[in-house]
Amino acid sequence: QQPVQSPQAVILREGEDAVINCSSSKALYSVHWYRQKHGEAPVFLMILLKGGEQKGHDKISASFNEKKQQSSLYLTASQLSYSGTYFCGTSVLGSGNTGKLIFGQGTTLQVKP
Amino acid sequence: EAQVTQNPRYLITVTGKKLTVTCSQNMNHEYMSWYRQDPGLGLRQIYYSMNVEVTDKGDVPEGYKVSRKEKRNFPLILESPSPNQTSLYFCASSLRQNTEAFFGQGTRLTVV
After folding, report:
1. How far is CA B99 from CA B22, B64, B84, B93, in A?
2. Best of B35, B97, B108 to mutate (most A CBs within 10 Å, chain A)
3. Which of A60, A89, A95, B95 is deepest in the core (most CB within 10 A)?
4. pLDDT tens, A33-75?
5. CB contact, 8 Å: B102 with chain A?
6. Distance from CA of A6 to the nearest CA of B (A)
């Protein structure tokens, strides 16, 4: 039931782009994205609700494809500050209003100068 | 300052000795949740609460209890801790479900 994130790890040079995928075996109500730096608490990036929406702020955006039961996080022109572990959290359709949230195992992103 | 406060930040205890990890938020949020984080497993939800006196099991509730008697507080109780509960624990709150969550700084628990 845990969503699967891919890749597990990625190393980039500053300015390069990256895509992190989050796939579920169940129909989804919402997808949540968080970034966690080493030794710190997770920090909110964005939430996408069913309806196939796309969101973005600054150079980080995400899409949610209900039919494919997956979401993708896009990081463009990466900066050193983007380094960290990215988690997607999913609420399953039917339990979306209950608050139950299941996170993927995380994708570690390292941006080098 | 808007924040989620967990205490203690670090705790070493022995098997079977009851303990409570406190969580408090000052943002008048309805939704609160507890997670444990273990290497390679990501964040796993233990319990969540939609409002005062409303709590429900997350993905890994076994061995834990919670209560929500006041809106601001959501303590996590381990009645009889075991070594497999050694983990990093996070409390989080949000205005309601499916909105931005604010995480506490974490509690690193070691059960020996």
Report:
1. 22, 25, 31, 9
2. B97
3. A89
4. 999 999 999 999 999 988 767 677 778 999 998 888 999 999 9
5. yes
6. 13
